[in-house]
Amino acid sequence: MNSFQEFDSSSNSDTKAINLSAGTPSNFTSPPPPSSSSSPPSSSSTTLSRYENQKRRDWNTFGQYLRNHRPPLSLSRCSGAHVLEFLRYLDQFGKTKVHTHLCPFFGHPNPPAPCPCPLRQAWGSLDALIGRLRAAFEENGGKPEANPFGARAVRLYLREVRDSQAKARGISYEKKKRKRPQHPPPLPPSNNAS
C-alpha cells in the first residue's frame, strides 16, 4: 500500500496530530510523530530539512482536518473547495491585522493606534502552505492532474487574499523583475599595428 492510500484510508494512529476542532497554532503545524524504529532508511541516515519537516507536519495537519470534517472526507474525494474551506478555517488562528474598509487605518501599513479589525492568516503564509501541500500531495502518490491544492479556485483565492490584504494594509505586492546578467562592455580593438 503506498503512502497516498495509507493517508486516505487510515486514521493515522501513529501520528499525534492535533485535534483541529479544538484549534491549531498559527503556523499550521502539528507535533512531530513519535520516533519509531520502522522509519524508512533514507530518513534515518539523513536529517530532513526544515522545509521537509514543515511539509510533513502540514500534510499531517491537513489529514487530521479531513478526518475531523463532518462527514469525514477521504483525500481522493477532496477538491479545491475543501482546500478553500481549510484555508478559511485557518484564518481564525491568524496574526496579521487586516483592516476593513470602514476602519480609519485602512491602507496604512503602520497604524498609530489599535483597532478592532480582524486578525487573519497572512497571504505569504497561505501561499507557502499551499506550495508545501501541493508538493506533499504528489510526493505521497497523488496524481498532478487531481491535485486539489493546484486547483484554479485555490489560485484565484490566494490572489484575492493577496490583493485585499495589500489594499487593507497599504502594502504593494509588485511582481519582481528578473535581473538580466550584465555583460562587461566589449574592449575596443587595439591599434598596436607593428
Describe the overall structure.
This protein has about 190 residues and is mainly α. The protein contains 6 helices and 2 strands. The protein has helices spanning about 5-10, 40-45, 50-70, 80-90, 125-140, 150-170; strands at about 95, 120. It has a two-stranded antiparallel ribbon. Helix 5 runs antiparallel to helix 6. The longest helix has 19 residues, at about 50-70. Residues about 10-45 have low confidence and may be disordered.
In short:
With 194 residues, this protein is mostly helical. The protein is built from 6 helices and 2 strands, in the order H-H-H-H-E-E-H-H. Residues 9-45 have low confidence and may be disordered.
Write the layout of secondary structure elements.
Blueprint: H1 3-9, H2 41-45, H3 50-68, H4 80-90, E1 96-97, E2 119-120, H5 123-139, H6 152-169
Helix pairs in contact: 3-5, 4-6, 5-6
Strands of the biggest beta sheet: in what spatial order?
A: 1-2
Q: What structural class results from the helix and strand content? A: mainly alpha
What general form does the structure show?
A: flat
- Percent in helix: 25-40%
Low-confidence stretches: 9-45
N→C terminal distance: 80 Å
Largest sheet: 2 strands, antiparallel
* Number of β-strand runs: 2
Question: Order of helices and strands, N to C?
Answer: HHHHEEHH
Provide the β-strand percentage band: under 5%
Q: What is the count of helical runs?
A: 6
- What Rg, in angstroms, do the CA atoms define? 23 Å
Provide the residue-averaged pLDDT: 75
